[in-house]
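Thread title: Can someone regenerate the structure for this chain?

I was given the following input by a collaborator and told the matching structure tokens would be attached. They weren't. Posting the sequence so someone can regenerate them.
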Amino acid sequence: MDKAVIADLGRQLFEANETGVTILPITKTHPEVTVEDAYNIQQELLKCHLAAGRRISGRKIGLTSKAMQLQANVFSPDYGFLIDNRYFTNGDAIPAGVLIQPKVEAELAFVLNKDLEGPGVTGKDVLAATEYVIASLEIVDKRYHGFYGHICDNVSDNAFFGGYLLGDQIMSPTKMDLSLIGLVLEQNGRQVATGVGAAVMGHPAEGVAWLANRMTELGTPLKGGELILSGSFIAAAYVQPGDFLRARFSGLGDVAVAFEKPQE
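Best answer:
Regenerated them for you:
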């Protein structure tokens, strides 16, 4: 794909993010797009965020569980970046109009205390390089209308990053087997999903290992101090204005978020 086209598509996605006016999926308007093109479009989108004065506050891994892959009709992991203006505090109410078509995922976040450079990074290497894990909610959002599920659209749109929240408790990754951490997601006081850490590639650290090896290939290895969202235990929950969601993680407490209704 031509560099000028890639740059223009990145700008279109940025404008959609800023205005809330969605665009057609890139695979509809540019069916020749490849996964490599999609990651290049993602980079152009991120350049727009940086030019607007924002900062990359971490990285995310997407589509790591069977539930998420089936929901998205995409069957390989992908990655994106966290943007600091979309970090919300545990329990926050997100104003109407900030997001376009949000859904909520529940996952573990890893905070590294040393660099992770491949090739050959394993889940054990990740645990040894992790300062602590913390419960998190990721809000996914799409800047497309008429989206039907394609890895290139997902990747181009920064792996559908919309925002994130972190819990209030931290835990050493060696304190318990992270694959056994349980999750209950409640929506408006009603249980809507349950999950376990093993849903994420067998163990949440395996997702971070995958990302570490992939980032090394691209010349941007994971660094000590970075925050990594490791992938959802469950399929994303659809939300409506006025909804309140709470994720309860065994051993790590709760993370909650509300979505405000538009003012009349």
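Residues 3-19 form the longest helix (17 residues).
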